[in-house]
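Dissemination and training. As part of the outreach component of the grant, students in the summer workshop were shown how a complex can be specified as a set of sequence lines and then modelled as a single object. The example used during the hands-on session is reproduced here so that future cohorts can follow it. Participants entered these lines:
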Amino acid sequence: MANATSPLVKGKSSADKTVHEVINSHDFKMLVAKRWSVSMVLLAALFITYYGFILLIAENREWMSQKIGETTTLAIPLGVAVIVIAFVLTAIYVAWANASYDPEVERLKGQLKQ
Amino acid sequence: MPPSTQPMQTTLGSPQASSITFFVLIVMVTLAITYWAAKRTKSAKEFYAAGRSVSAVQNGLALAGDYMSAASFLGIAGMVSLKGYDGMIYATGWLVGWPALMFLIAEPLRNLGKFTFADVVAFRLRQGPVRIAAAVGGILTVLFYTIAQMVGSGALIKLMFGIKYEYAEIMVGIIMLAYVLFGGMVATTWVQIIKAVLLLIGVSFLTLLVLGRFGFSPSNLYGAVASQYGQTALEPGGLVKNPLDAISLGLALMFGLLGLPHILMRFYTVPDAKAARKSVLYATGLIGYFYIIIPIVGFGSAALVGRKMITGIDKGGNMAAPLVAELLGGTPFLGFIAAVAFATILAVVAGLTLAGSSAYSHDIYVSIIKKGHATEEEQMKTAKAATVVFGLAAVILGISFKGQNVAFMVGLAFSIAASANFPALLMSVLWKRFTTGGAVASILTGAFLSIGMIVVSPTVWVDVFHNAAPIIGLKNPCIVSMSAAFAVGIIVSLLTPDTRAQEMFEAEKLRTYLGVGAE
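and obtained this result:
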């Protein structure tokens, strides 16, 4: 609970905090930190996927051109995989935000003085 | 089935009953929607943001409709048919911006803004200078993107329907203006939804027809391509030779999306940040699916129609998809695909026009000239006047750039968006000490460095101006111009501290993360 962890809001019951108190509460700072660390981890995964793909093509063409079927090259499923992974990363963010970001936002909003 | 035994007969380039019927049908339906939307478009909020009543699914479809241009539909299919695997590399680049848009911008943008991305940048900074700079960045992006779209569409319509280039430009201008002027964002949204649905259905059906010829096995299709054009058609070719060039273009495609005014503006049409978030997921899924199946159409066209026939109609390969549609589905299906391509052009240009109009009427007229105190009537009048001016400019620029090599303008638009609009947007959301001076300097650096560097690059200096050697070797400036925009924004902000902007950061955070006070 925010009341217990933040010195600024000690002793106050919920639904009576000022904007300043909520913004500086431990819970709000945790929420913002969590939001951006989730974003940054997913963005890093996106970078590794896409720029990794581009660099593999630029630096290791032979490896990308190896056949995995009669004529199909490894590069073909990898290209499709880049698109699929990009979508999956987006879906992970939405699932996280729906399951843990939104409820926390509602809880913090409930603490605000009307 | 080897293609070249007998040259295929095509009706492309002459108006056919089927293409005209489909085209007239699409235009009639969309104009009927515009008539209905016009009655619901009385305030600026309705004109620019469809009254914030668009659902997440609708916005996902409309975002996809706004983004999947005729260039990406016809261009990528053509590139795959002629260059093979390189077209697939190109297609992936067009998708990877969407997750980044989600992680960095979508929700803060929705919570902080009203109609334009400049609302976000100017949230706690001085309105005048920031709005002007943001409008410059926004309008330059939209302008280059529009020129590329208009020139491309004139040529495509001429190829498909045999209509004279100038008439095609005027036709696009008139129909598109009817949507935007009378129906505003409500009509534009529906045009984009209809176009996205038709395009996805059309291309899915075409993909099934192609795969049907190869026993529904992609590897049989690849085998047919390899037997005619050699194994190299399935291997990476010359597109990614220089890693630095590839990364720079990749950055422009990825972060350019996060600065495209016509895309960003769509987030104000949904009720809240949660809907904005969901709409990005839907858009990513639809666009991803589209870029996965488009190469199959391209390979199918190479295998069944043949490269010789494709380049015989258009050297750039743009008619690869329509030709294979005609071969497998007959003239009626070609008519459908051609009409959908036309609808695609209309929808994208309508979205761009609305974005260009809002940059002037909301950011300059309402916020600066009227200091935020314009009546609804004044706002609507200016918005519509700006729409007409922008629409006319699109037609005039389209006609005056006829036959010019404007392929670089899409890359330039993405580079300006990634360098001028995106850094200022991100820093204004994330960095407490960001200042007015920092924002203006960052936007202008990003915009003009992009333009300056692309002019002296191989893309323009050699390919357009036909000089022997470029002044700098980098084909897309983004890696330099975007980094410079961030660096300049940080340095100038540190040199011009602004305590008022820092004090207001709390209010901004409340709105960014909790959505309190969001419009």
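Chain B has one domain: 17-402. Students were then asked to discuss how this feature might be tested experimentally.
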